[in-house]
Amino acid sequence: MRIIIATGTYPPEVSGQATFVADIQRALQEKHIDCLVVTYADTTSSSGTVSAVARTPWRYLAYFHALSCQLNSDAIIYAQDLISSGIPAAFAKRRGVKMVVRIGGDFLWEKMVNRGSCTVPLRQYYEQPKNILERFILLLYRFVLRRADHIIFNTEWQQQLYIRQFRLPADKTSVVTNYEFQEEINQPQTGQQEIVYVGRLVPLKNVDKLIEAHQYTQSPYNLRIIGEGPDRPRLEKRSSNISNITFTGQVPHDQLGQHLQRAAYVVLPSLTDLSPNVLLEASSYHVPVLLTTEVGLSETIAQKYERIDPASIESIAQGLDKMNRATTRRVVVLRRDSDKIATKHLEIFRHL
How many independent structural domains does the chain possess? Predict the structure, then answer.
């Protein structure tokens, strides 16, 4: 069996997808599985197990070619999304080759939110009328979903949404979560006075409302915003007259740990966040999290967090104020078992 992971990003690029792909590649290789990666990057390159395709105007064609060169008679293409890797994978698939797609986000909804055409959470998005561009992208979704032999979701919440929306056969889908609940700890106030946001600076992350809510609380806590994105210049200008907001930019993983160790808590106000990787990062340092209500976690886990309505500045402000005043804060400890995740994937691959 040869597994070819088709992904949009891979280390040293920083993203939840890049982290996942590196982890599962390593775990599969430890099980003596022939596992290769095809990814996009700034420049074209190739090593023993990773082929990188430059992000040029003809990148999809080059990606298709890179994938096709890796295929053999018992290959399985494991695409990490429906568009950037899913479309080339769907065209590269041929007789005898199986294709699995992993869905951990929604490209179309994210695109519409970030261009200002949508302001509702993902759970409401598919109920709205669609324009010509949206209908075209949905046609691409359906093409890739039809070509796939199996579809893996990060969350049961998105699995059920897609089964309804795209009329997927339930037995063609599975859920493999990124992490599982381990324990819950009530932690005394540590005296730290820094709130940390970690993530892209794009509209769907809802940092605008976070800044406004933080200003409204008139809290002595400093809000540290870690991350990059097209909204950064505008957000910095928006908060230039607020003394207790700091923009740090993108930081290496080891430095992120240092910021988390100094944090009173982490806040995630996203319009929707299906399976945020930063929950695992915060958990590893026993840092509490103030979490959006629009999250793909099971309700059993989600209800353990203090939660805020991302559509309401008042709700975000109340959540911040409650966390700031708390003498104890709840820490939800999560665990990622890469070996267990790899084993679940192999069970799916072997039954195709």
Answer: 2
